[in-house]
Specification:
- The protein has a six-stranded mixed β-sheet with strand order 5-4-8-7-6-9. Strands 1-3-2 form a three-stranded mixed β-sheet. A two-stranded antiparallel sheet has the order 10-11.
- Helix 2 crosses helix 3.
- By secondary structure, the protein is of the alpha+beta class.
- Among the domains are: about 60 residues, 434 Repressor (Amino-terminal Domain), CATH 1.10.260; about 60 residues, no CATH class; about 150 residues, no CATH class.
- The protein is extended and about 100 Å long.
- The protein has 18 helices and eleven strands.
């Protein structure tokens, strides 16, 4: 059975052609040898365009018939479908059917929408690049929050004192914190704590339902995360005034930066309840900063312990000054704290020669390394992979690497340096990030340094991918 011929409705194209030539419908009808009413019906897509009329149009206006091909409509449909898949259109309810109707029924408007979307994507890409390079002049909320934490050396005594007071009131073995917090919510706030399946909680790990008088925790969380989320909810109820005072006393250019900083402080306060300062610092020294042993003693995760170790800055009762980094397999830095020890770059990833990137090939192993920066500073670091998500089969999994480091002269206090001759250790030469590193012989370099002039020599190929001058 022969395929049914597809009718062509090209009203918007015919109307645009007529207007571009400054013709009335009657004038176009006269040039094509048809009635004005027929031209009117064609332009309103109430009549298909016949092959004979297409030939007449091509001859009268010196056009290529491909300008009216179905392929162009199909291409426009694909462009509109891709655009309508973007969240800015999805929120408006635009669908593939809408894209098809627009491409076939009003391709002129469809082309305009597609062109506008392409311009939007280009502008978004340029804005993203400018933000990454710090060229927009706008406040970066994430960097604002990080700068706020750094300015206080990641130490907030009021929150630590509140955490110790809460821990004393709870009077619990560390691994029984969840049960103690549950009693605190019931007795002090008339709130019941419930652990619910993920089918009920959806994507939420924690939810406060004032109407039903419940704090809801997802069973998809492991024990350490359940304890942390419950402690965090208690902080958000009992310490809201302290959180507000800390952020209100600081200067933020953006509201988003202030909110992110407040959220970071709430997390700090929750950790201060789980890992109260005095007991935690004492255990850290006793166990020689063994992160996994501390995790077992306090019922906390590797990342929770590593992050808390960076906060031991109480005058007269300091711990080892640590720096902290969390990075994914693609090199994206999602959390960092320099502790006035390590000069992290504000933008960009970390050095590929740092073994924090090797832990993805060695799951659950702790890797150690002595590293040296171009300025001669030497450091000792440990790194291990940590996992998030994947609480059930088929769930998306987030794998990241956590690095914890200190100055080389402090490394002897760590169990991880036992048996190592730190004085004669040969450090791995690393940089802060490629664009700020001026090592000339690095084969792992991804970018030339910003402050140096590139030297292009077509007759010589070195191991390093870029050559640059120091003048």
């Amino acid at each position: 059975m022969p395929a049914k011929k597809r009718k062509l409705y090209l009203g918007p194209q015919i109307r645009r052609l007529r207007r571009e030539r400054g013709l009335t419908q009657a004038q176009m009808a006269g040039e094509l040898g048809v009635s004005p009413s027929y031209v009117n019906l064609v332009e309103r897509n109430q009549r298909p365009v016949s092959a004979d009329l297409l030939v007449r149009i091509a001859g009268a206006y010196d056009l290529d018939l491909s300008a009216f091909s179905a392929e162009r409509t199909d291409d426009l449909f694909e462009s509109l479908t891709a655009a309508f898949a973007d969240p800015i259109f999805q929120n408006a309810g635009a669908t593939r059917e809408d894209a098809h109707e627009l491409a076939a029924g009003n391709p002129v408007l469809g082309e305009a929408v597609a062109a506008l979307y392409r311009a939007y994507r280009t502008a978004q890409a340029e804005l993203t690049d400018a933000r990454a390079a710090g060229r927009t002049g706008e406040a970066d909320p994430v960097e604002e929050a990080r700068a706020f934490i750094q300015a206080s050396r990641n130490y907030f005594p009021a929150l630590d004192e509140a955490g110790e007071e809460a821990a004393r009131a709870l009077d619990h073995p560390h691994t029984a914190l969840f049960e103690s917090l549950t009693r605190r919510f019931r007795q002090a706030h008339n709130l019941r704590v419930r652990v619910l399946p993920r089918e009920v909680m959806g994507d939420a790990f924690r939810r406060l339902n004032r109407h039903s008088g419940e704090v809801l925790i997802s069973e998809s969380l492991d024990g350490a995360s359940r304890r942390f989320q419950l402690a965090l909810q208690l902080v958000l109820i009992e310490q809201t005034g302290a959180l507000d005072r800390l952020v209100n006393d600081a200067k933020f250019e953006s509201d988003a930066g202030r909110r992110l900083a407040r959220a970071a402080l709430a997390n700090y306060a929750a950790a201060a309840i789980m890992l109260p300062y005095t007991a935690f610092r004492s255990a850290a020294e006793e166990l020689r900063y063994d992160v996994e042993a501390l995790g077992r003693r306090f019922g906390a995760s590797f990342e929770q312990i590593a992050h808390r170790l960076t906060t031991l800055q109480k005058p007269g009762a300091e711990g080892v000054p640590f720096f902290f980094l969390r990075v994914d397999a693609a090199g994206n830095v999602s959390k960092r704290y320099s502790g006035e020890v390590f000069p992290f770059a504000r933008y960009g990833g970390s050095c590929p020669l740092w073994n924090v990137h090797d832990v993805f090939r060695a799951p659950r192993r702790i890797l150690t390394q002595v590293v040296a920066l171009p300025d001669g500073g030497k450091f000792f670091s440990i790194a291990r992979a940590v996992h998030g998500g994947a609480a059930y089969f088929g769930a998306p999994e987030a794998e990241r690497a956590v690095a914890l480091g200190c100055r080389l002269e402090d490394a002897g206090k760590l169990v991880y340096a036992a048996g190592l001759d730190l004085a004669d250790a040969e450090p791995t030469p690393i940089g802060v990030t490629c664009r700020l590193c001026e090592r000339v012989d690095c084969a792992a370099r991804a970018h030339p340094p910003l402050r140096r002039r590139l030297v292009i020599d077509e007759y010589r190929r070195l191991a390093a991918p870029f050559s640059f001058a120091f003048d």
